[in-house]
Structures are given as C-alpha cells and as structure tokens.
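Hi Y.,

Following your request, here is the sequence exactly as I used it, all 321 residues.
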Amino acid sequence: MEAFLDFEKPIAELESKIRELRHLADTGDADIGEEVAKLEAKASALLMDTYANLTPWQKTQVARHPNRPHFGDYVSRLIDGFTPLAGDRAYGDDPAIRGGLGRFRGRPVMVIGHEKGSGTEGRVQHNFGMAQPEGYRKAARLMKLADRFGIAIITFVDTPGAYPGIGAEERGQSEAIARSIEACLSLSVPLLSVVIGEGGSGGAIALATGNRVMMLEHAIYSVISPEGCASILWRSAEHAREAAEALKLTAKDLMSFGIIDTVIDEPVGGAHRSPLGAIDAAGDAIETAFMSLGNLDGGQLKSSRREKFLEMGRNGLTYGG
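Below is the corresponding structure, written out as tokens. Let me know if you'd prefer a different format.
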C-alpha cells in the first residue's frame, strides 16, 4: 500500500487524478491520453523538484518511511546463499539485529544489520530496529568470527537508537555497544557500513565504525533524534523541525564534515518509491568500496580505520554518530 508523507500531498493529488483518468479511459470510449500525459509530466516534474529541495526534517520523514527497504530486502537482493547466525552465546538472540554468512557478487561476506521489520507485527517482533545488549554482543561475535576466517564484513545501519529500557540497561547496554565498537576497530578484514535509513546515536555507530561509511541520499545520521534533541533544548518535541536543522544530520552535511565517505543517490522520490533501484545503487557503492580497499593488508585496514575515526575529533570537528 502506497503511503504519502505530508509534504507529498500535492504529488498524491496529481497521481490520484491520473489514476481516475486512466480508469475512465479503461471503462469508456473517451480518448484522454493527452490529458493523462500532461498530468504525468506535471507530477514527475513536481516529484523531482520536491525531492531536490528537501529540508532536514523532510529527509527525516523519508528516512522513516514505512515502505523504505530494510535489512532483509538488501540481503534478499544483494546476498546469495545467506545463512543466518543467531545468539550472543551469553543471554539470547535479538531480532533487532540480524547477521549471517553469504556471498556478495561472488565474494564471501559476513552481513550484519538492524532490522526494523515490515507491518505492525513485524515491527513489534524486531522492536522497531532498537537493539538490546544481546544484539550488539551478537554483532561483535559475528565480526570476530569473520575476522578469524578472513571474511569481509558489510553492515547495514537502520535504527532510531539502541533500546533504552530498564532490562537493556540492567544487562549492560552501554558496555555492549562499546564492545561492538571495539570489535569494529580491531578487525583485520574490510568493514563496509551503509546507513540505509536512520542512523541513531551509539546504536548506529556500534555497527558503523567501518573502513568506508556510506549513506543513502535521504538517510539521516545523528547523535540523537530531532524529537529527542527538541525535548532537551526546547522542552518540547514540537521543535523537532528546528532540531533537525541544527543537528546537521543529512548525508550532504555529513559528507562535508568528513563523517561519511560516500553519498549513494536514491531514485527520484526516494528509496520507498523504487526499492530495487536504491538497493542496486547501494550494491554498486559497496562493490566500488571493496575495490578501493583491495591493496590493503590486515594491518593497514586496521590502522586506517582507527585513524579515520580519530581524525573526526580533530580540527574542531565534533562527531554526531
């Protein structure tokens, strides 16, 4: 089912008129092909203009769109022979983070990522992509397993943030996130990270401390959500628009700060309008990133990754991941 965001209402109205005219053409003798063509051209131009000038708050809405492709969609399209691996070998399995082995365009890889789920039941099952400590411990376990066998790692980041519940805190949420980041930094194999939707706080960077960090054009990446920031600074989530502007959470902003390495163009209208196009673009970016790391040995991969993230705290830059 197609879902339109608030700022897409003019586009939705045009597309609704086009559907009505097409229905009339199918059920009657009237030749309205020319009128339909004019409306389609108008809708296409409006769509391009709208998505070329999105505000940070509008990009936040796009990044959260319910029809945006999730981890499972990327795995189904890009990874052959995916074999899921579960559990942290300490407490349990967390469905908010999935991982496993497979092949990316012929290359053996370990794939790990946040899974938000689709539909109400799926989102509840995966806790809306908000991982518990056992999820991050599973991620660290799978990274170390890949490192042991010399297998490259791809991570897909899509989370509002780590789950802040009492049980998660009791089981060591912050320590689990720190251990996952530590695992990322200790790897002697390539680690490529792609922010495909929301990149929220430490819950995101726990999987995104990579040699190359890529980000879809309309994804967001920030130390806190706009609503959370507004609640702290203005004591009201109603100021989320202003917070989104101040947080500099868009791919364009983060690229200019040197926080990410690549902005992956999305199809016109966002990944939710053309999921396969967005997934294929991400796949091409991943392949290019692998090629750029091809001549580095394990020690160089590790040292360059560490230096990359240490550099973010220098020259007056503040990291917002």
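The CA atoms of residues 312 and 318 lie 7 Å apart.

Thanks again,
Q.
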